[in-house]
Input
Amino acid sequence: MPAPTVKIADATSRTVVQVLLPLPLSGAYDYLLPGHLEARPGSFVEVPIGSRSAIGVVWDPPEQAEAASPLPLSRLRPVAAVLPAPPMPAALRRFIDWVAAYTLSPPGAVLRMAMSVPAALEAPRPRLGWQAAPAAAEGARLSAARRRVLARLAGGGALSAESLVEAAAVSPGLLRAMARDGLLVPVPLPAESDPASPDPQHPGPILSPAQAEAAAALRAAVARRDFSVTLLRGVTGSGKTEVYLDALAECLRQGRQALVLLPEIALSAQWLERFAARFGCPPAVWHSELSPARRRETWRAVAAGRVPALVGARSALFLPFPDLGLIVVDEEHESAFKQEEGVIYHARDMAVVRARLSAAACVLVSATPSLESIVNAEAGRYRLLDLPDRHGGARLPEVRLIDLRRDPPERGRFLSPPLIEAVRETLARGEQAMLFLNRRGYAPLTLCRACGHRMQCPNCTAWLVEHRAQRRLLCHHCGHAEAIPPACPACGAEASLTPIGPGVERVQEEAAALFPEARRLVMASDTLAGPTAAAEAARRIAAREVDLLIGTQVMAKGWHFPQLTLVGVVDADLGLGGGDLRAAERTMQLLHQVAGRAGREAAPGRVLVQSFQPDHPVMQALAAHDLAGFLAAEKAQRAPGHWPPYGRLAALIVSSEDPLAAARTARDLALAAPEAAGVTVLGPAPAPLAMLRGRHRHRLLLKAERGIAVQPLLRAWLGRVAIPAAVRVQVDVDPLSFL
Ligand code: ADP
Ligand code: ZN
Output
């Protein structure tokens, strides 16, 4: 199909193009396209803006023919250059417009997410790689790391520094040192190397009848080459991953690209291994911790259609796939898919939109799907596929509640006698145990015993969290860090600051005292810095080099540890406070996920849940494996008041460094609030996080019955109020966080 022409000829036959810039402007700007340049919608171009120049994308001409430039042609500035990069596909341009309209963001702010690697737009520079020097391997007494590097280069091949660093798990500095020592020599590399090509014919496991049926349905959805959404639900360990990898194979056979979104891609070493085992090579990956060179290479390869399968974080939705055929959102219920800064969007919901605009199949996967997705499936908007049983006859673990009122831990301790006993038994049998607490650091609160002063963040309405290993108090919201003071800053009492409550470091300390002979490992986002550390931790656990795991939710997700048979939940009530709409649902999902780590193979698993409220519906449903009953109760609570998913919410977050300005704007917004049947506006109220990073915050919440489009209401509302320069109003459509 020929590209639609953008030429709007005037009397002198000059061409006007609309260029969208990755800046928070209201829309695309008009430029003149000089006769010697060729551009079409999607072309990346360099244009002057003010006194500088910027790179943007030729956007599609406005719908109405008469929407000509408001500026006289003589005032338009010319496009300076067309960049040597494949044009942005139409489906991605439509997606950017759609996300901008849905989230009430400037289109340029959304475009910026799709242009996160400006360097990728330039022609690739010739690159140097490393080759082993002749006879390098013969020098005796090489370190293990050096031998790993040489092993990767065996046979005379050359690799880029990034590839070597990744493949041999060494530092870039080591490569330079090896070059100095004459072990490596620089050689030119081909300009662009193709990512490895996953082989769809590579044999996968033999699927059980239930798995095979689900896989066939997904394959058929992919083969239709049309938009569809399927919710793949199945208990932990039921083989959901195997099933959707089968759909991915079909997508490869169709010659279209497949995208898998994972909530914590940096911690997904096991997933990458499984992909490699299934398709014979690793997938392309996309997340914030990639090196700049790797980002540039990956972006260019995606744009050129050379990446058949990519696994990534939510930002991968904005990559320029030319012909996306499948999007999988694994752990679709995870709140990590929500971006809370800048353009506020939910990657699960936007994945559905991206699939629709690309005529692709979308598969949402979870053991505990969000109520949103369940209701969509029940209403027939999504197809529902269920995998009811664990693979290979493994049983779901037995879940027992420990009533902390009846079985309290010792004073100042956090593990109750029954949990301690169970860990002891498990370790004595030679099996692995896990203690789960969703809180990083040593203690969430530091209090002065003399005057009651609480150590608080100077920039946020939040307590400082002690991190004992670093001997610091940290703010988990803004990153503020300070040394633990020797005396109370309020009353001056010496040695009076006391940690209150547990974090994983404190549970580890208690476990060290109780089980000194057990080999322990702490897994939290701050102790597993990056993919390599996570992969190494997973390897050690699987290799039985660890007896007792202590960790936060990073340990709860997706891992498959065959010999782990006991999970102890240290504080199951942690997520229930705060009165959040989804507090119970989220707690249920998290605890179910954690419990799902136990007994995934032959040995049966056990889960002990410490709670002060064992009668809470979440705890009862968990113990009875009664997700359906729990969901029915949740629905009954939300439906009458039109709470999501039975109605829509949108939040306005008003913030300013000036407390008065923030309060005044919040009040002005409340006075201008929309009035319509089926629409309610709550607030303004100081946000629970009344101060964040030094900004004072107020919130308003718009609630609309299902079927009412909230965007036009919001647009009109914001249009009625003048927002001072010192005040920022963020719009959060479908908010997950109410902080
Ligand atoms: P889920 O994604 O539902 O948690 P997985 O796909 O991770 O389940 O499967 C759990 C474990 O069972 C994995 O180790 C997986 O390799 C294995 N497994 C699942 N289905 C099969 C199968 N049909 N044949 C062999 N192994 C399987
Ligand atoms: Zn802070």
